[in-house]
Amino acid sequence: MTISEVSKKYDLTPDTIRYYEKEGLIPKAPRTKSGIRDFDEETCNWIEFIKCMRNAGLEIETLKQYVALFKQGNKTVKQRKILLIEQRKKLLEKQKNINATLERLNYKIEKYEEIEKGKLKDFAEKP
Amino acid sequence: MTISEVSKKYDLTPDTIRYYEKEGLIPKAPRTKSGIRDFDEETCNWIEFIKCMRNAGLEIETLKQYVALFKQGNKTVKQRKILLIEQRKKLLEKQKNINATLERLNYKIEKYEEIEKGKLKDFAEKP
DNA sequence: TTATCACTTGGAGTTAGCTCAAAGTCAATA
DNA sequence: TATTGACTTTGAGCTAACTCCAAGTGATAA
After folding, report:
1. How far is the CA of B4 from the C1' of C28 (A)?
2. Whole-number pLDDT of residue A123
3. Can you name the residues that pair with B31 across neighbouring β-strands?
4. Which strand C bases fall within 7 angstroms of a protein CB?
5. What is the pLDDT of residues A63-116, one digit of tens each?
6. Are the beta carbons of B84 and A108 separated by less than 8 Å?
7. Are the C-beta atoms of A3 and A14 separated by less than 8 Å?
8. Do residues A66 and A80 lie in contact, with contact meaning Cβ atoms separated by under 8 Å?
9. pTM for the full model?
């Protein structure tokens, strides 16, 4: 699989994929005799995984650490677990923030709807 | 209220608060005769609102637009509603990404626990 | 065989969102 | 009166995560 095919498949630019490879977020992709990347399934799985984590906002640096631990094999299972638990904690925190904001947005949108329908006139709105 | 008091209250640095003011994310705070900011309740409410929105990841630019519309009064209710609905959509999308990632993290953490307890040996782990 | 086109690299540039530094002002205290 | 310390401004600097550019290479189509 060429980089542009992988790019389409995962909706990441070729530049981003090369950047991830250079930074060690994904394994170094296999190459053809002429030096062109020829992605295999394993590498694709990593790309998919990293994309998922990045979409949730995990940092490059953190993912780099995780991949480095992974490469060292089973002796790093404990450290990897600790790392993932910390990231889970962060995501739960984020989830809470988003939920709080969603509630607030819902309330305001509702109010705006009432104003539009004329149910509420001169609504003394706070931010 | 001085800027350092507000800073403590909302856990934002004075620099950040001044930056928000400069960018128009919050109203210009009232000043004492000698030019020092003396935050009133209204401005504090804005700070709290903006902090909440920023915590959920809404962009400065978007919030700037919202505040600008707000300042123009009731004639912008419709536009503000549209803006908030778009932001809600984005947050719901984010929520989905976070949930997907949380599930994945939970699965992996569980597997790592099983390995640690020796229930799983030589677990052929994919990313 | 020449042209095209997707790929390659290294390194510079960009954007968002702060964050810091320098130099100055003012009110209150020793 | 001198000094302390919190405030002020302007503008530069920083970090994360890409994103773009220039110059070069190699395989295939005309």
Report:
1. 18
2. 66
3. B37
4. 6-9, 16-21, 25-27
5. 999 999 999 998 999 999 999 999 999 999 999 999 999 999 999 999 999 998
6. yes
7. yes
8. yes
9. 0.93
Nucleic acid strand D within 7 Å of B3 CB: yes
Per-residue confidence (pLDDT) for residue B41, from 0 to 100: 96
On chain A, the residues whose CB falls within 8 A of the CB of B91 are 98, 101-102, 105
Query: Which ranges constitute the DSSP H helices of B1-127?
Result: 3-10, 14-23, 41-55, 60-71, 77-116
Topology of the domain covering B1-55? Multidrug-efflux Transporter Regulator; Chain: A; Domain 2 (1.10.1660)
- pLDDT at B46 exceeding the cut of 70: yes
Neighbours of A29 (CB within 10 A): 21
Please report, rounded to whole angstroms, the spatial distance between the CA atom of protein residue A18 and the C1' atom of nucleotide C15.
Answer: 20
- Classify the C-alpha dihedral B100-B102-B103-B108 as positive or negative: positive
Nearest to B20 by CA among B39, A100, A124: B39
- In Å, what is the separation between the CA of B36 and the C1' of D21? 48
Domain residue ranges of chain A, discontinuous segments joined by +: 1-55, 60-127
Q: Which residue among B56, B108, B113 sits closest to A97, beta carbon to beta carbon?
A: B56
CB B109 to CB A77 under 8 A? Answer: no
